[in-house]
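Example record for the data management plan.
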Amino acid sequence: MLRRADRPPEEGRPAAPGATRARRRRGPGLRVRLTLLATGLVAAVSALLLWLGWMLVGEGATALPTLPPQTPVLVDGVSVPAGEIAAALGRSARTEVLQVGTLAFALVVLAAAMVSWVLTGHVLRPVHEVTATARRLSAESLDERIDLEGPRDEVAELADTFDAMLDRLQAAFDAQRRFVANASHELRTPLAVLRTEIDVTLADPGADVAELRRMAGVLRDATLRAEGLVEGLLLLARTEAAEHRRTAGDEPVDLDLAARGALDAIRAEVEGRRLRVEVTSAVGAAAPVVAGDAALLERVVGNLVENAVRHNVESGWLTVSTCREPDGGPVELVVASSGPVLDPEKVPDLFEPFRRGTERVGKGSGLGLSIVRAVVRSHAGSVSAEPVPGGGLSVRVLLPAGSADQPSGSLNTGATVPT
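Corresponding structural encoding:
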């Protein structure tokens, strides 16, 4: 049997988000509870004061001076023997205190309830503004802010925290929109090439085997480009989604060996561009070893080296340097190369997806540095870049040092450096 609050929505009428939780909430609101609490405290204190006054008046009557026993005394128009004057005055005073005190008690409690209701409403008004803003928000209206003015109290801190959260949400939504738009644009290019080649070949009735082979080669290159773009997007999404990277199973990675292996993998491109390559590591210092996901860390080095080669100029230069700060400091990797002149103000944008220093320079989809930044951040590191005077780019990566007791088994330690 389902409880009434847990019954599924009627056919064709989906329940609103949070409707089930709202139905389970019972009782008065926060303003009512605060008003009742304040009124209850005032009532308790007033009752205590009334009781103390009642007791003190009764006790004070016993302090009257003693009169002769037969002296007649009138109390409220009634003749009372002098021996009973103290008790009679005590009863009369207590009755008067109860009559006046009860009326005062009711007025005080009523005034306390009204004042508490008004004050709690004034205090909770910013909370209602936060609630109203949250209800109005959607993916299209994330630019609204509370901008609460007034003293720096807990409610103001809540409003400021909510505004900061909206800033982060708006930035995330904007980045997502840009990412989707750029990904759609990048994927449209190879798809357009595929469709154009197929349409042109099918429209040619005299297409021979050579023409078909040429079309197949173009289609293969376009599919490879699309495949690489999709793999890069998946890697970037997987890395950015890992807010708390697990350290279990981390492997030590020597960045110097990783750089040499990456250069060896693209030896043909280096020789084709006649690049001067130099790989250096701090002499006498500890090995530049970091700990983490070996595949991702090697991808960082590979992306930096590939970018430095493919976005270089003919007969240019490329340097890769690694070092480890003493006393357990971070490991530094610097990849610098010649290339086109870059605007210093636009260099930070190169870490955004699908951003390039210049339009269509070299190969690639524009995800290399984005993946580098995501992987480095997931390993508690930092990455920065700056233009090289005369043209080119220098990228600096800092990563926490790892233990060099166990060498990384996934690296080609015998790789040679092309020159």
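Summary line stored alongside the record: The longest strand covers residues 317-324.
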